[in-house]
Design a protein that fits this description.
Blueprint lengths: L1 E2 L5 E6 L2 E6 L10 H15 L6 E6 L3 E3 L19 H33 L5 E5 L2 E3 L1 H7 L3 E5 L3 E3 L2 H5 L7 H9 L1 H10 L3 E2 H7 L4 E3 L4 H14 L2 H12 L6 H28 L9
Parallel strand pairs: 3-4, 4-6, 5-7, 6-8, 7-9, 8-11
Antiparallel strand pairs: 1-2, 2-3, 9-10
Helix pairs in contact: 1-2, 5-6, 9-10
Amino acid sequence: METMPHGTVQYDVNEGVATVLLDRPETLNSMNDGLMLDIQSAIGRVDTDPSVGVVVLTGAGRAFCAGADLNGLGSSADPTGDSGAEGRAAEGETEEAITAAIDGMDTVFNPTMRAIRHCRVPTIARVNGAAAGGGLGLALACDVAIAADSAFFVATFGPRLGIVPDLGSTWSLPNRIGQARAMGMAMLGDRVPAPQAAEWGMIWKSVPDDDLDAAVDQAAAVLKSTSSEAMRRIRSSISTASTRSFSDQLDLEHKHQSVLIPMNMVEGAAAFIEKREPNFSD
């Protein structure tokens, strides 16, 4: 594996599958600017490498991603109210950390999420453990999420931090599981075990821990070998469907099929008749 520039993500390509491994296990792969910039670097590599057909995003150690790294934000200037020199210095450091967190959302974190959503190829979240806070948004930004049964998802933002769920969670959750469940997750902060997340439709599937790699490999094999143009159009059509009427969606499907049927359907039909896997040219 190759280490990305900030040393927080490992990147590897093997037989058309790019693995993006969050590598801060000592912090449960919590997010800082370096981690997010390294994810951007990895996705940038994918977007310029025609040999890559699918991305697998996962975490090292026992967590997928525990959310934002809160170091620097977790202490007040002085809990006793002392306004001495040390207290004023600590307060200044906290204010700097707050400003950096707000600015970093716009300049680092959100661009990383957009890079994942608009990646050239399909993306799979291999959720090997906790996906908490921003880690929830990271997992749901991928096209397909497959989790180990022991994993869980939790929106810690509101009840624990007094902030709004971010990194796309306020979009992903209601679109995947409906407003009532999204509101409950965001406002109450309960853990949702992976099997329940799958039952709700938050993720594609939950599998026994020992079967996680096999399930991810199977999905990656399908995605990397099919028509990349069809996958791109499927991703776009489904992710934006809620913005269109049923009739408009029919028109969009017609537009896509007018390109894909001449490109792929003869080969697909021949493969079906001959009982073999299709070999698409794109």
